[in-house]
Amino acid sequence: MNRLLVLQSDFGLGDGAVSAMYGVALSVNPDLTISNLTHEIPPFHIWEASYRLLQTVPYWPIGTVFVSVVDPGVGSKRKSVIAKLTTGQFVITPDNGTLTHLLKVVGVTEVRELDETKNRLPYSSESYTFHGRDVYAFTGARVASGLISFEGLGRPINPNNLVQLQVDEATLSKDSVIGRIDILDIRFGNVWTNISRGLFKQTGIVYGDLVEVMIKHGNTVIYQQTVCFGRSFADATLSQDVLYVNSLDYVAIGTNQRSFAEVYKVDTGSDWMITLRLSD
Predict the structure, then answer these.
(1) Is 9 exposed, middle or buried (0-12, 13-18, 19+ CB in 10 A)?
(2) Rounded distance between C-alpha atoms, residue 60 and residue 49, angstroms
(3) Is the distance from CB of 81 to CB of 92 less than 8 angstroms?
(4) Residues of the chain where predicted confidence (pLDDT) is lower than 50
(5) Backbone angles phi, psi at 178, to 5 degrees
(6) DSSP H helices in the chain
(7) 158 exposed, middle or buried (CB, 10 Å; 0-12, 13-18, 19+)?
(8) pLDDT tens digit string along 31-87?
(9) CB-based contacts of 202: which residues, under 8 Å, 6+ apart?
């Protein structure tokens, strides 16, 4: 293994939870390199945890071990798993939907169910509420250090049997494409959709075209304007909106040097829909 361990959680950095995970991992092997994906996932927000893994995991070296702990079912009968991706990284996480986007977009070759009676911090068997420290950080460190093999972690399970969140596909009609707002580019307030660049290209829209954009929350129209499709924010003037393809190859919309999400009060979820149509 390459001794790279990357942690994600909804714990925040306001207390010692993340530090405790670091301590456990470094006690297993002080030569590990530990990085944070993020610890600012909104509490219990499995969807966002799933998407942030998609945003990050494929860009790390083969053999990197990720630990993702957004676990509202901690202490219940939900399974703990380790997945091996087609790109060669490993993810240790509760089986609660966190692997949804990686399964759909990247691909999972093998999954093992963690035997929690064996793969946990010594003397922690009576601790039921901090599996991030006692099970996941401990096991992730052992895997990243090569102290235990993937096959030795537990019984194999079919990747198709993992819990998956509902992922709706964007759809193409004669003159428009309809998708959903999947996630926000939080710091800058840009809005990322589930409309892939490939699907969007089928509309015939090219860089420089004006596009009619409508965003609805349920049945309420939140935003309806004509926006230029550009390569980057350099194609928009200050405070002007622009449609573009983001770093994950999906269509996004933002405002040059302002937060689109904040200005227009846009959020994410299955009831936030976006329609794109070439302007007449």
Answers:
(1) buried
(2) 17
(3) yes
(4) none
(5) -120, 130
(6) 17-28, 46-56, 100-101, 131, 138-144, 197-201, 260-264
(7) exposed
(8) 999 999 999 999 999 999 999 999 999 999 999 999 999 988 877 888 999 999 999
(9) 172, 177
